[in-house]
C-alpha cells in the first residue's frame, strides 16, 4: 500500500478528538502500524501546544519513531520534532536516543540527516557538524548545502553571528543552486537566495536573484512553491526600493508579495519585514492593505486583526507576539524539509 506520509499527517490535524482517541488506543495495541501512528502524530502536531496531555502523548510517539525508525523519512520531519521548552524531558530523551544512533554509525546519511533536522532548531551547534559530515559523504548532493544554508539563517539570529553566518548562508545557498538539476529543483533552491544575499549586505546580488526568481516563477504557477517565490522576490525588491528612497515602489512590492498563498504562507504566515520597515516610515495605509490581503490566505493569522486595530489606533504595532515569532522560526526549519520533494515521502 502506498500513501503519502506528509499529506496524511497534515490532513489528520483536523481529526475529531473522538477519532484521535480511537487511533491512539489502536496504536498502543498495534505499535508497528505506522499509518495510524502518522495520523495521531499529525493530530498532536496541531493540538499539542494547547494541552499538556496531548504534548505528553506526542512525545511518546516521537520517541518511538526515533528509537525504532531512526532512518525513516518521517522521523526527520517536523512531525517528529520536540521543542526543548514544551517537552523538556522528552527532548532530553530524544537527544540521548539520537546520540546513541550516531555513535553506532556516522555513515548512514538517512540517520545523519534526520538527526541534523532534529537538532537544527534547539541546538544549531550540534546540527552543523552533522550537515558537514553529510556534505563530506555526498559532496554532489545539493540538499545538504541547502540545509546547511538554512541552519546559518538560524544562527544569524544569534548575537555576534550575523556577519559570519550571513556570508556562510549565501555561500551554501549558491552551492545548492549550482548543484541542483535544472528545472523545479533550481526553482526551489533559488527561492532562498534573494533574502540570503540581502541579509549578507549584497544588495545588488539580492536584487538580481529576486528578479531571476520572479521570472522563473512564471513557469511554475501551478507549483506549491509559486506563492513562496512571489512573496520572497517582491519582499526583497521592496526592501531594496525602500532603502533606496523609493517608497511608492516599495509599497507596490509589499502588496504584490501577498498576491498568492502557499502551504507555508497559509499556515505559518508571511514575512513582516517589509511591512515593519514601511510602518516605521509612516506608511500605515499600505501596511494595513497588506495585512488585509494576507488575511485572504492566512486564515490562522489570528494576530492580523489585532495588528490592524493597533495601527489604526496608534499608528504602529511591533508584530512581536511570541507565538507568532515562534511559528516564524519554526517555518525556517519546516522549509528545510519541503523544497527537495520531501512532502512526497515513500511508503515502507
Any key phrases for this structure?
348 residues; Serine Threonine Protein Phosphatase 5, Tetratricopeptide repeat; 19 helices; 0% strand; disordered C terminus
Largest sheet data:
none
Class from helix and strand fractions: mainly alpha
Distance between the termini: 9 Å
**Arithmetic mean of pLDDT:** 89
Low-confidence stretches: 339-348
Evaluate the radius of gyration: 21 Å
How many strands in all?
Answer: 0
Helix and strand sequence: HHHHHHHHHHHHHHHHHHH
The CATH class of the largest domain: Mainly Alpha
CATH A-level architecture of the largest domain:
Alpha Horseshoe
Count of alpha and pi helical runs: 19
What is the total number of structural domains? 3
CATH fold-level topology of the largest domain: Serine Threonine Protein Phosphatase 5, Tetratricopeptide repeat
Q: In terms of quaternary structure, what is this? A: single chain
Work out the strand percent.
under 5%
- Estimated helix fraction: 55-70%
Shape: globular
